[in-house]
TrEMBL record:
Stored InterPro entries: DUF881
Record's keyword annotation contains RNA-binding: no
Protein's name in the database: DUF881 domain-containing protein
Protein family according to the UniProt entry: Belongs to the UPF0749 family.
Pfam family, one: DUF881
Residue ranges the record marks as coiled coil: 90-131
Entry's transmembrane regions: 55-76
Annotated keywords: Coiled coil, Membrane, Transmembrane, Transmembrane helix
Record has Transmembrane as a keyword: yes
Region (Disordered) location: 1-38
Length: 277
């Protein structure tokens, strides 16, 4: 009797539930019986972090390489400048310093002029009228520099008179270049207006300047700062001293507040050079 009751009671009791395995809890959609895809875990972004680190490393290497190249180039330039200046005399160093200062002053003056023109264009009520005025001003400046228009102003008059020896063309060309380096804006050589393509040649009777034959005395007029122009000719060891010592010629430099240059040049027709549009 007891055995029968125990058997019936065991039949009514539910089966024991097996214990769950430790690990990830299976989502409802992860059941293989439903046919749904299993849930996939997201991987950490290790690839992006590694690429960013590699880019930063490459960038740092390139920046360091560029800095090293710039430092090397600067050192080479400084060494070359020092070696070239060490071979110059004291008079030549003074002349180079004066020429550099004059060029810097001219660039600063030109910069100030352009800034004033830009300001006047922006502030002018009639911009077209102001632009026309500035265009006319620039036309006059370019006409003077190119030799198309006469000019006058402060400057010097250099006179070279030959004695027994003849001054060659290269020495007179050096005299003109010294005046240019000293800040001369307009130069004339006897009856010839000196421009960028002016040349000098030696002839049997004297010098030839741009198809014009010239004879002593040679008169060179230059418009610019009178003190700078005079120092460029009369500096110790300069072109004036070489003309006196080498050719036994007399060189005189006279400053003037009104140097007038009436010689003009015809506008050159350029065959190859064209303006940039």
């Amino acid at each position: 009797m007891r055995h029968t009751l125990r058997k019936k009671r065991d039949e009514r009791m539910p089966e024991s539930i097996p214990p769950r395995r430790p690990g990830r809890v299976r989502a409802p959609s992860d059941d293989t019986q439903t046919g749904a895809f299993p849930v996939v875990r997201r991987r950490p972004l290790r690839t992006l972090n590694s690429n960013a680190t590699r880019v930063r490393l490459v960038t740092s290497v390139l920046v360091a390489l560029m800095c090293a190249l710039l430092g090397f180039g600067y050192a080479v330039q400084v060494r070359n400048n020092q070696s070239s200046y060490q071979s110059l005399s004291e008079e030549e160093l003074v002349r180079v310093l004066d020429e550099t200062s004059n060029q810097v002053d001219k660039l600063e003056e030109r910069k100030s002029q352009l800034n004033q023109q830009l300001t006047s264009i922006k502030s002018a009520a009639d911009k077209q009228k102001e632009a026309a005025r500035i265009a006319q001003q620039n036309e006059q400046s370019s006409g003077i520099l190119s030799g198309r228009l006469p000019a006058q102003g402060r400057g010097v008059v250099v006179t070279v008179t030959e004695d027994s020896d003849r001054v060659d063309a290269s020495t007179m060309f050096n005299l003109i270049e010294e005046l240019r380096n000293a800040g001369a804006e307009v130069i004339s050589f006897n009856d010839v207006r000196v421009v960028t393509n002016t040349y000098l040649l030696d002839t049997r009777t004297g010098l030839q300047c741009d198809h014009s034959k010239l004879q002593s005395p040679y008169v060179v007029k230059a418009i610019g700062d009178p003190d700078s122009l005079q120092n460029a000719i009369q500096i110790a060891g300069g072109v004036g001293s070489r003309i006196k010592v080498q050719f036994h010629a007399s060189v005189s430099v006279e400053q003037s507040d009104s140097v007038r240059i009436d010689q003009v040049r015809r506008v050159q027709d350029y065959q190859y050079a064209k303006p940039v549009e």
